Amino acid sequence: MKTENIEEQESQNTEEIAAEETSEQQEVKDKTEDFEEEKSEETDELTKLQDELAESKDKYLRLYSEFDNFRRRTAKEKLDLVQTATEDLMIALIPVLDDFERAEKSFDEKETDIKAVKDGVNLVHNKFRKILEQKGLLVMQGKQGMDFDPDFHEAITQTPAPKKNLKGKVVDIIEKGYLLKEKVVRYAKVVIGN
After folding, report:
1. Do 135 and 178 meet the contact criterion of CB atoms below 8 Å apart?
2. Alpha helices in 85-191 (DSSP H)
3. Judging by DSSP bridges, how do beta strands 178-180 and 170-175 pair with one another?
4. Rounded CA separation 127/100 (Å)
5. For the whole model, what pTM was predicted?
6. Which residues does 146 contact at the CB level (< 8 Å), separation at least 6?
């Protein structure tokens, strides 16, 4: 009976060892599967991130190219605009040039009437002034005795004031000033009383 007990115990021990080995093997197998699963998930996530990065790089390159094309196009348009900005003014002034050429031809005639020449020059002058006014050029209004304003006037000299009330004021206007739509394009050259 002792032998049977011993054999039974050995048999139980063997079964326990086999069960432990099987459970250890199962545990190792489970851990390996978990590890492989985690590794697969990390690989999937890494692949996904690499795809997103590639997509972002592509979007960046396209946006950069679009901006570069826009910059070049606007620079070209600006250059074209600057080169042709005065085109409409030139077209408007061509008839004045034609009038001056006709006037020169009339000077070559021997019997030129001075009154007719004067009237012709006045007509051309008025036409020229009207064209400039239509394009936005305005003459600065000024007169003797007005206050000196450095935003509109350029003092070219000072002279003793003929009257006390003209000290520091405009005594004479040498050249008229001009505005182009409210922007000074030529300051009025004035003499100031001292």
Report:
1. no
2. 87-108, 114-134
3. unpaired
4. 11
5. 0.54
6. 169, 170
